[in-house]
Each structure stands twice: as structure tokens, then as C-alpha cells.
Amino acid sequence: MTDVERSVRGDVAADPGARAAAVRAVLWLLVGVLAVRQMAVVLRRPPGERLIDLETWTGATGVLHIAGSLYDPGRFTGTPFAGLVLKPLTVSAQQALGVVWTFGSLLLVVLLGFVAARALPAPVSRRTAFLAAPVAITLLMVSLPVRNTLHLGQTSILPVLLVLLACFAVRGERLPGVLTGVAAALQPAVLLFAALLWLTGRRRAAVSGGATFVVCTALAWAMMPRDSWAYWVHHLAGAGLGERPDSLANQSLHGALLRFGLQGPFEIALFLVLAAAVVVLGLRRAARYARDGQLLLAVAVTGCVAVAVSPTAWQHQLLWVLLAVVGRVGTKASDRLVWPAVVVLVLTLPGKMLLPNVGVVLPVRDNALLVAALGAACAVPFLSRTSPHWQKPIPTDYAKPVPARFAWVPLLPFWRRALSRPNLLLELLLIRVVYSAYAKVRLAATAGRSAAEEHGRQIHSAEQWLHIDIEHWANHTVVGIPWLRDFFDYYYSTFHFIVPLAILGVLYVRRPSDYRWARSTIGFATVLALFGFWLYPLAPPRLMPGLGFIDTVHGVQDLDSPDFGALTAVTNQYAAMPSLHFGWSLWCGLVILLLAPRLWMKVLGLLHPLFTVSAIVATGNHWVLDAVGGAAVVAAGFGLTYVLAGPRRLQAGTGAGPRDSGVDASGVPRPGDAPGEPAVAAEPAGTKA
């Protein structure tokens, strides 16, 4: 594998150092693990649930065995030429075919990664060239199109590989055109690459590609005239095949218009107009990037155009969008990772993890892949290689490294305090993804009802021994005061998310350097809380039978139901220790206490954790010790952030006051700072963090 990689990258990929070699070894190990996992996931499924499309086509009763038209059962969605190519597979043993097909598909993914790594636009640093192949293959392995392709047994990796081979691996004009034509015969929208070849001056290759497509299609017409008529004429080049065209799986302009409720001639006319505009704009951009020396980006843009304008673009056909990750966007170093992060997240995670279930963002969430494809094709301002920021983006302002206050505190040198405001799009996207992952892990931390109730009895006994078992008294007292009960119910249900998000929003706008520090503390606290949910599932007071608690928020619970301990589909009701209701509120109070400029603001901020702890206890949702656990993870979050990033407060290097950060509200150094010097310095070791 190393020899193949060197033959692809040449001398550019020479060993840049031991650290890079270790990183590459880890990446190759990850590639191997992912490949084995993909093989196991596919082959361990019982027949009928694995390689669904492949078995439907080539199985004992598959479509390709039928004497009539391939499209009569409505199960075959490929071109007649694809059916002609797959026809010999019907004589294969099913078990052997599954193994060979899956292994062969993984080999195609590996080859695709090597070719893509070779195609990176120059100049490429030694480290990038050294790590490009394993990184590319890893991203391909975890992408939704590849996972979907392996699950279904589809052929959609092959057209992408053929186009990349035509553009980067073979010489001359005829053979690249032939490869492009064969790819188009398998997936008609790929014929747009013949137009790209024409626009970039490779007209013989474009003509060869078009001629190859015509020959392959004509061969299929000669061998299977009825099937060809059904595909090209009756189903309008396959537009009516497969799932419903308005399903979320169809990430094309046509599918999006249908999902918006448009139908009939008007929808078709609008789709044709939009498709024509996307083709013209996208191909012009692709040709410009190709002339600029970014041929891989040009290929990705053209593929994204094909995705958008195809009548149907199923998930396994959207691998082109991932290739657009090679485009460079943004003049600032802090913005350079935004586009790659968006592409990778969209191509690896389901839309419901990227955006919340809120009506205003549903059109974007349900069409996330299409939005990414349209952005790459028509809108994203990729940098030209002639731009002064191509190789050297505007650097990020960092605080001066902070010395350890105590000798045993290892302030990590690679975790540098950035002073500038983080990119809002990337910040919102990552916060949403991290919270979605947290919610899934929290829900997955299941435990039996008996264990959770046993832990509840342990906590109750400990509180009785400590004489802090006030939950029953508080719960019944509040139940007897209707207005107080309504207040605590509303407070419990409403302010848990609103207040932390509001604080983060204010800090992002007014105090960007403090925003990063505060965001890290609550992030660490939330992650640490997951360990408590996993290791110590705990029944809250409202779910403890025999203790007489009243659930004022959720209503009466049937504690005698034998399956009540099974977790609901919404949340893990035994994720109670530590209490993040109190933990997040305590974080809010501490942040306001540290940063608020007025005394009344500090006092008001401290009321939030006070009201929250009262609400969680009075409503029967937490024990007092749960709040202690919440305080512990928040303290650990502040401690970890200090260990990694140093003290919160920074001061100017030339006699600034203790509250002067040396930067303005946007995080930019104030005029007068010496050029070339650190904008801020660490506070003296004697001041408080």
C-alpha cells in the first residue's frame, strides 16, 4: 500500500518526520478498521437485508433473471447498459457474490482515495501529501454515499472513479473520453463531464466521451430494445424509477420542488429553468477552476451540478459533493476550516443531527445534501491559486502562552487562546452536532429499572444520614401552593436552555475571547456528565415507588407498570446524576459573576442557580445530591479549561489595568499595539483566574 501511494504522489510524499509517520500509521490503521467494520456490517446481515439492490437484481428470482423488461417489476433503477454489465453476475453463487462485491467495492473506494489524493491542486506541502491518501480514504469510508452504496450493493462508486481516472490517471485524449463515456452510460448525468472537457479545451476527449456514450447506449438498445425504450422514453431517462421522486432520498432540484408542493407542468417548467441556470453557472465556474489549476475542484463542481439537475439523485450517487472539500474558502485562517467542516458533516451525518426540528429550518435540513451541492456548484467563493491568501491566510491572533501557575499543572502548549471571534456558521453547526451526539449518547446510557431504583435508595439513605433529605417536604409544600408550583414547573421547563444560549450569544458578540473560554467550560462539564449517566443510572424522586413524591411537571406516572423502567423515545429518565439542570444554571451564574460589569447583574445572575436547584428539588425531578454532582462536573469543566488554556483574564503587556484585555469588543488588538508582538500577555501568577 505504501509503494502504491508513493507511485501516486511521487517524491512529494517523502517522509516529513517521525510525528507525521506516526499519524499516517494511525490513519492507515483507522482505514483498516473501517474496512473490516464495513465488511462485517454488510455480510453479517441475513439474506434479504444486505446488498438489497444487488440481490434484487441478481438473486435467484432477481430482475435480471426475468425474461421480460427489467423495469416491469419497478425494482431496477440503472440504465439498460448497467443491466447489460450486471447480467453475467446472475450465474454467481450468492454468498460468494456478496463477499466479492463488498470487497471489490472497498477496493474501489481505496483506489478512489489514492486518485483524489494525487489530484490535489499544487503546491501541496510535504505533510499534506504524506497524509492525503489515508485521510481521503477515511472520509470516503465514513461518508453516507459510500455506506449507502455498500449497504445496497449499488454501482455508484464506479462512475466517480472512472471520471477521476479519465482526468488524472490516463494520458492522451481518446482514453479519457472513453472512460467518461462509459461512466455516463452507467449514470447519464455524468455526460456533463464531456461538456467540461470541451470547455477546458480538450475537445477530442469530449467528442470521444460523447461517442462512447452513444455506442454503449446503442449497444444496450440493440441487445435490450424493450428495456431501452422503457428507460429512455417511458421513464424519461430513469426519472420515474426507484423511490417516490418527492422522498427525502432524492436530493435533486426536482425532488426539492416536489417536496415544496409544486406539481404538474409548472413544476417541470420551473425545474428545467433552474436546471439550465445551474448548468450554465456551474460549468462556467468549473471551467474557470480547471484553468486555474484546480482540476479536482472543477470535477467536484461539475459533479455537484449533475447531482442538482438530475431528475433523481439518490444518496448513493452524491459522492461528488464530498470531493468539493478540496476547495479553499476564506481569507482568514480562522475561516479556512468552515467549508470542509460543513461538507464533511453534511456527507457523514443525517440532517436531523445537523439542524433542530424547527419549522423554519426544515427546508434546509431536509435538503442539506442538495444545499451543499448547489453551494459548491454556484455560490461558494472558492479562492483562486493566484490569490495571496491561497497559501498564507490572514493568521489568527493568539494570546501569549500562559506559564503554569503551579509546577504540576501542565498547561498544554498546543491549546492556544484565540482572541478573534470564531466563525458563526461553524460554531453553530458544531454546537448542534456536539449536542446531538450528546443527546444520543445520553439516550443510549440505558439501565434496568431495578438498578436505577437501587441507586435511588442509596442516594436517599445518604441524604438521610447527612440530614439533607428535604425533597419530600419541598415537593409537598410546593404542591400545596398553586402559584409557586406553576412558577417552578415553568422555570424547570423553560430556562434550562434559554439562559445558557443567551449568555453564549452575548459573549460571542461582546466578549469573543471570553466566549471561547466559557464555551469550553460548559462543553467539558457536559461531556463529563455523560460518565455519570453511564456509570450511575439513577431514578429521580418522582420515579421512586413508595416514597410518595408527586411529579408536578410530567403528571401522574404509573409506577406499577412493569415496563415503566424502559426508557421513553424522548429522553433517558434515569440520567439524573449529575444534574445538568443545576450544572448549567451554576455555569450561568458563575459566568455572570465573573464577567458582568454591574453588581446588580451579578446578584441577578446568582438567582438563576438558586431558582433552578429549588425547581428541580420541589418538582421531584432530582435529589439534592444530584445538584452536588452537577456542581462537581462544572468545577471540573472550569478546571480542565484552566489546565488547557490558562487563566481567563488576560492583560496588556504594557501596564494595562487588571480588567483590560488589550483587545476591542471584536477581539482585534487595539491600535497602538506593537506590530509583530503578542497582542496580550498572561496575567501575573498572583492574580485570580
Gist of the model:
It is built from 28 helices and two strands.
Overview of the molecule:
The protein has 689 residues and is mainly α. 59% of the residues lie in helices and 1% in strands. The model is unreliable at 1-14, 565-569 and 653-689 (pLDDT under 50). The radius of gyration is 30 Å and the shape is globular.
Keywords:
single chain, 689 residues, mainly alpha, two-stranded antiparallel ribbon, 28 helices, disordered N terminus
- Indicate the radius of gyration in whole angstroms: 30 Å
Strand order of the largest sheet: 1-2
User: What is the string of SSEs from the N terminus onward?
Assistant: HHHHHHHHHHHHHHHHHHHHHHHHHHHHEE
- What is the subunit arrangement here? single chain
Helix/sheet category = mainly alpha
Tell me what portion of residues adopts beta-strand conformation.
Answer: under 5%
Overall outline: globular
Helix content: 55-70%
The DSSP helix count reads 28
Unreliable spans: 1-14, 565-569, 653-689
Largest pleated sheet: 2 strands, antiparallel
- The N- and C-terminal alpha carbons lie at a distance of 51 Å
- Please tally the β strands and state the result: 2
